[in-house]
Design goal:
With about 100 residues, the chain is α+β, with helices and mostly antiparallel strands. A three-stranded antiparallel beta sheet has the order 2-5-4, with no helix packed on it. The protein has a two-stranded antiparallel sheet with strand order 1-3. The termini are far apart.
């Protein structure tokens, strides 16, 4: 099963020189089941967090809700960086819990 996202936001794509591709999640209705033989490659879609300036925009909810960025080469480091608590230091056990 996969989820179909919007095409990348052209304004963000242009400003970021096509390095950051931001797409909107289309909701559960965009989920599809496909034949595994049709898969060419796999990417990850991670939530694109808003910065303080963007959060102050009166249209923030409409502009930035359900926005995700494309990650083409997935690794465990990528997954950790995309977490909201990524700035927390892991403890001696390395799990980040006390």
């Amino acid at each position: 099963m996969l989820s179909v996202f919007s095409k990348p936001d052209n304004a963000i794509k242009k400003v970021m020189y096509s390095v950051l591709l931001a797409c909107h999640y289309q909701g559960e209705t965009s989920c599809k089941v496909i034949d595994i033989r049709d898969i060419i490659s796999v990417i990850g879609m991670f939530p694109l967090l808003v910065n303080h300036k963007e959060a102050q925009d009166p249209w923030a909810a409409e502009l930035y809700t359900c926005q995700y960025f494309v990650v083409q080469k997935l690794s465990l480091d990528t997954v950790w960086i995309s977490r909201g608590d990524a700035d927390e230091e892991p403890n001696a056990d390395g799990d980040g819990e006390e």
